[in-house]
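Give me the fold.
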Amino acid sequence: MTETLAGRNQVREALRAGRPLNKILLAPHLEGQAIGEIINLARERGVPLQRVNRAALEKLAGHHHQGVVALAAAREYADLEDLLARAGEAGEPPFLIMLDRVEDPHNLGAILRSAEAVGAHGVIIPRRRGVGLTAAVARAAVGAQEYVPVARVTNLARTLEELKGKGLWAIGAAGDAGQEAFNADFTVPLVLVLGSEGRGLSPLVRSRCDFTVHLPMRGRINSLNVATAATVLMYEVLRQRGQARP
């Protein structure tokens, strides 16, 4: 479950200790030395800050918030290296999933559940413009979040370049891609990159992909929910890798 931390000292100490935080909420026009320190620490650690009215703070934390509330992650985030190490320990080529601008907690939870089912080595999400590990995500994942490490990074495009430098292929999912997913080679070390339904991949992230693939659509709709598309693609990875085993 997401834990709510209320009050200036509690939030400041959580930041000092490096505790994973999804977001810090501040009352409007709140200033002072302690607030300035919280803001600086949050920026150093890449924790999003948001100004909200006091009614919203009181709804989360009652009347003792001192104008500051932090939303702690439902579980700790992993480092990117942890995901790669997990693949190495299993003796398997890395299989990672990266989510670009996915904001619906139910989608992230469903993707974590599918990732666990197919044996993916981890999921990568952005610090901003995307949902974190909230209580709603945990409920949708139905326990899978305990088994699939999630890394939260500052810059998805830069992370893709880093992973490509380590030998992974960046394969993006896009409805207008020229190559059908079932004709692609998913046996290589890879990071599968998916964007939100409606907006898809951001241009910068898409430009960092080695190539993009699409799922065939024979009906009248032109796109799938991102969690559904992710599940289909993940199982294609599993199918191909199962056939590739001696």
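The chain has a mean pLDDT of 90.
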